[in-house]
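Example (one chain per record):
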Amino acid sequence: MKKFILMLSLFLVFVLSCGKGKEFVVKPLNGAQDLAGAALPDFELKDLNGKKIKSTKIFKNGKKTLFIVAAEWCPHCREEIPEVQRFYDKNKDKVNVVIVFTNSRSSLGKAQAYIKENGYTVPAYYDEDGEILRGFDVQGFPFNLKINGDKVEEELELPVDEDSLTKTFMN
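Predicted structure:
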């Protein structure tokens, strides 16, 4: 009986350790300083209601993507997100917009409250375990990328506003 319990325990440990997917890493090309040209692996995003979506469903739908990692407490993000919302309202049929809120010094509840209190409708996600932060090696907020299919086209210079986003994505 002890052998059976030991074997069952080892099996459960093995199954549970295999259940967590391998974390992804987006690497700069040939020692570049930014991620321009870097290939994007598949990963999952979780919206503010807990629904999961595969990155490929967003990135590979024929539209370019504005991908932002932000924090509701970040002053620069608070300036930028209203501009992103205006850009999204005008261009949502032509450009994907994704804002991923960090878990760094924050919580899902704070991100949900920030979106709701400001009436934002831009697609928002939450990085509950920091996988997005680590995968993209985010060093500061906001972190903005222009993505085309499965590649990073460019890291966007800060700050972005509706006009600069329109020039970047609509030309």
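Caption: The chain is about 40% helix and 20% strand.
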